[in-house]
Fold each of these.
Amino acid sequence: NAGVTQTPKFQVLKTGQSMTLQCAQDMNHNSMYWYRQDPGMGLRLIYYSASEGTTDKGEVPNGYNVSRLNKREFSLRLESAAPSQTSVYFCASRASGTDNVLTFGAGSRLTVL
Amino acid sequence: AQSVSQHNHHVILSEAASLELGCNYSYGGTVNLFWYVQYPGQHLQLLLKYFSGDPLVKGIKGFEAEFIKSKFSFNLRKPSVQWSDTAEYFCAVTGLGGYALNFGKGTSLLVTP
């Protein structure tokens, strides 16, 4: 079982470059999430998609855009990368209903020079 | 807005010592509470969860947590830690029916042989 798959695992960008982080889940989950993890800051929610066709801002959405391409895929785009976006990015998904348990991907480490 | 506070940022214990990690949250309604663990170089994994019922919750690997509603707390405990418990531990909360988990800043646990 693949679960939640993120690509790429590592990426180095220059300031101003753009890139898209891809996330796909094969568990038929309705909700998907993008978090960033920074030392001493825990995980902070960037965007989430409660269901296919909807997206909402989280705690730190500035500088990011998302697309819920279909039920399986939820991508995160940096239009013009900044050094402050150097972080580890985690995608997660959750089934509908009362089970709020998130299943996380392995993470994508992004460095912006 | 919901918030989660983890009191201990770094904890160092010897093997066989007892562990208690503090977690307090602020939220007025019914909550779902979680502890996630992140082993070095790995993604987050669910350790245990509380939705309702018995406030003493048992998770994997001998961990347990107690929900004390009057104190807005959900502390994680383990009677005897092992070297393999070295990891970062995150407390998280979401309101009933809520879509996104709010995470604490994490506690880094180092268990020495």
Amino acid sequence: EADIYQTPRYLVIGTGKKITLECSQTMGHDKMYWYQQDPGMELHLIHYSYGVNSTEKGDLSSESTVSRIRTEHFPLTLESARPSHTSQYLCASRPSGYNSPLHFGNGTRLTVT
Amino acid sequence: QQQVKQSPQSLIVQKGGISIINCAYENTAFDYFPWYQQFPGKGPALLIAIRPDVSEKKEGRFTISFNKSAKQFSLHIMDSQPGDSATYFCAASMKETSGSRLTFGEGTQLTVNP
């Protein structure tokens, strides 16, 4: 059913470790996004990309970085995980064209101990 | 800076009742207003959307009411069912030179009791 895939689904990792959250979509969408969702539910945009080799920071400051080398792949990396990074991370994509709907993955729930 | 404010934060409704979620926005340049529905363990999914040139849009039991002068819009769920229990997000966007980004409300957790 899902055309946008996030792995891993759950990740528990110790402080200081480097992690990469994977996001892939098979729909050929140019635009991709990373959102952080806290237990309080609110969605915060942390990174977005409008195409290959294009990445921008979102509205919420994040210590993570992203890359967009291929259209279908938009990984997010934390060089040194901290407990404050504990959250749910949602990847999304949408086709070009105004008012096109966002397609979300099912998220990665990250816990940093 | 929160440009879209959503209320209530949580809502409990009996089966068959009407669920109403409200949103208010500040930026008059917004011209597209979607609602997203999120079930536990899933990402949000588009439910229904409206443009400001109409005051109401209905899709099945879901209706968006839009008040441009008040800068408010709301989601009405008629004959609410337990399967509607989810988190609902309103959002807004506008054309930008580099694409249209969505600004989300804070979310409303809806529980429909059987």
